[in-house]
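Q: Give me the 3D complex with zinc ion.
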Amino acid sequence: MFAALFARFFQRTDRTASVAASLWQAVEASLPCLAHLNPEERQALREMALDFLDHKVFSGAADFEPDNFARLSIALQACLPVLKLGLEAYAGWRGIIVYPGDFIIPRREVDENGLLHEYEEDALGESWDGGPVVLSWFDDPADYAGANVVIHEFAHKLDMLAGEPDGMPPLHAGMNVEAWREAFDAAYEDFCQRVDAEENTELDPYAAEHPAEFFAVASEAFFTAPDELFRDYPAVYRQLAAFYRQDPRKATP
Ligand SMILES: [Zn+2]
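A: Here is the predicted complex, encoded as C-alpha cells.
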C-alpha cells in the first residue's frame, strides 16, 4: 500500500514535468484566454490537459501531423471550458482530427421543394455527436483573429450532451432553464437583427445561423473577449459564467 501511495504521489508530482517548462510557457503565452486563471487553476488546467492527451487520439489530415505545441495548445483550450466541470463532459468519444488551416466539407441538402443541393462548405471545425472533433490548426494566430475554433467545437460537444444541439447544454442544479432561455432568445433575436441590418458586431456573424451556433460563438467570446460579450449581452454572460463556473472578466493575479 505504501508503494502504491508513493507511486501515485510520485506520478502526481512528476506529471506536468513530463512536458518541458519552456513548452508549457510558450504554449500558454500564445493563449490570452488563460489570463483570468490563478496559479492553482493554471496547474489544474495543465493536469487536465495531460489527462485529455492520454484519453484522446489525435490524427492529422491532409498530410499534416500536429506537433507537441499544437497538441498541447488544443488540449489546454479544450479543457478550459470544462476546468470546473470535469473531463467526464468529453467522455464517450476519442478522435481529434486536425487540418492545416481551414478545410472543405461536402454537403447534401434537400430543400422544401424536394430538390437535392450538393455543395462544398469551407469550415474551420466540426463536431460529431458521439464521434470526433475536427479542427483547423493555424501556426500563425493572426490567421484566425477573433475566433477560437477549439472552444467553439468543444462548446458544441457540451451542447450535444443534452441531445440535438440547440444552444442549451445540460444546466447545473440551481440554474434556471427559463432564465437561460430568456437570456439567449433575446440576445439571439437582437443579434440576428443586427446581422440582417449589416451592423458591425463583436460576435462572428456566423452566430446568427442557429441558436446552437450562437451558443458556441458566445462561448468563444466568453473566454476570448469577455468584456465585449458582457457589454453586448450581460444576461448571456451571466448564464455562461454560471454554466462554466468561471468569470473571465475577473482576471485574478
Ligand atoms: Zn459551430
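A quick observation: The CA atoms of residues 120 and 226 lie 33 Å apart.
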